[in-house]
Hints:
By secondary structure, the chain is mainly beta.
Amino acid sequence: xxxxxxxxxxxxxxxxxxxxxxxxxxxxxxxxxxxxxxxxxxxxxxxxxxxxxxxxxxxxxxxxxxxxxxxxxxxxxxxxxxxxxxxxxxxxxxxxxxxxxxxxxxxxxxxxxxxxxxxxxxxxxxxxxxxxxxxxxxxxxxxxxxxxxxxxxxxxxxxxxxxxxxxxxxxxxxxxxxxxxxxxxxxxxxxxxxxxxxxxxxxxxxxxxxxxxxxxxxxxxxxxxxxxxxxxxxxxxxxxxxxxxxxxxxxxxxxxxxxxxxxxxxxxxxxxxxxxxxxxxxxxxxxxxxxxxxxxxxxxxxxxxxxxxxxxxxxxxxxxxxxxxxxxxxxxxxxxxxxxxxxxxxxxxxxxxxxxxxxxxxxxxxxxxxxxxxxxxxxxxxxxxxxxxxxxxxxxxxxxxxxxxxxxxxxxxxxxxxxxxxxxxxxxxxxxxxxxxxxxxxxxxxxxxxxxxxxxxxxxxxxxxxxxxxxxxxxxxxxxxxxxxxxxxxxxxxxxxxxxxxxxxxxxxxxxxxxxxxxxxxxxxxxxxxxxxxxxxxxxxxxxxxxxxxxxxxxxxxxxxxxxxxxxxxxxxxxxxxxxxxxxxxxxxxxxxxxxxxxxxxxxxxxxxxxxxxxxxxx
Length: 619
Ligand code: CUK
Ligand code: CUA
């Protein structure tokens, strides 16, 4: 038997053991992926289909219809899933180092992390994608770091983090979103209130603590300006027409303990008039703090005194959490968290009304612990109910017509397992949601999976929402590692990732076979070498104890999916080299001896032999 035969034969029985048919018990034919064709026709009104009727399978070798970008919470990464298969396709390290991708191990990425504060981890919550004309343009993703007050940009050509900004004057950047329709600013929402500047002053004087909204230039990724506000902030979302940005805030009480923070019956949605803010910056009405132009958006600020306040404070019950703008741009909907309602804010009225509270045009009673709301593009809102462990579907226009506090707009509820945080529908953050798939990102999985010790996986559940008559259908459980918060789902055809690198796109010098050289100068050694199946450009490299050694290594392969790495034992090095990629890494050769430099990606049948020796001569 050839090796290939053996592999296939070995796999067959395993394949049979996988309970793949569980989702297809009713025998629905594979059909078009993600379609629900035929099901409605088969059903009477009171005979709703079970999960088994919705085909979310993606056959071996077939591609998913959507990419989902999920935050990884305190792993500091982004994860890429296929929808509807829920297969995890890739992980993109952002704020934490990651050895498989050599992220934080080569000079470029380790310097980027160092310049962004030098922290070893982050807490990603809100991955949002760049848009043009309120539609995904496939260029970038942006994500916050709640832990260290940073924002990052991920280049979707290479699915790699390419910029991080350590935002001054803030601690805990939570909500994140671009200014729409064309992503001409990126917003980071400051959550934790701290003295400003946080240099030891006002330590125990919480009334002096503040938080800021930060606007970041998308290209340079520098901070453009900040707005100081009363109270803290939480989540955020942008209006569709380039003017408004909305942030929820709990703790209007300015408390520092849980009971202090949740005392008041209302807190705020802060509606930032970003055009008015830019005018204020332009007019010099800012104070420079920590190198940033900071505009005062607090309620008693002169900039909020006139008829055209830069920040409108809308009273919303109670410790609201998520806020998201409807696809048509008409409403911002805030979820009450400690109140069983969502508040529907009419965005146009907000600009005109003398009292911002007059812009609250609906307040449906949706259930206990509403956290986040997503849209299907057919006029429905889907809100997670953390306490009830449900997703509730409700009608937005009905909510505007009904009395405040009415349950009438509620269409249906579905149990999820358990305690959902965010939920996200396909392209829900654009002007044109696809309305077929919804993912509920549940914080607890409890009994849903094989036990794996005291730390449980989370449970990301796929729900079909494409048939309003049949109702929401739970289709899949997906265990996930701690801890996704938000996600963005984008049609696969809107992304066009590269499969090999373009050397024009990075600064490191491409090293082909002719360019191999070892340059020695004053205790510095520069090793320029290529890598390919199954060798490095040098089979050994000799340096002196104490030398500072920089390796510039190019993977000269042009074939998709043939990666190499340069791993150096005991020197804590592993750099990833995708086809046509060059990376540099610098070490100090402070331990004499023989070190087998090797390739960590299984690249060919002679992968194990793809090695080179680093010989460090004693001084
Ligand atoms: S937050 Cu985590 S569940 Cu950071 Cu958007 Cu609501
Ligand atoms: Cu190159 Cu393994």
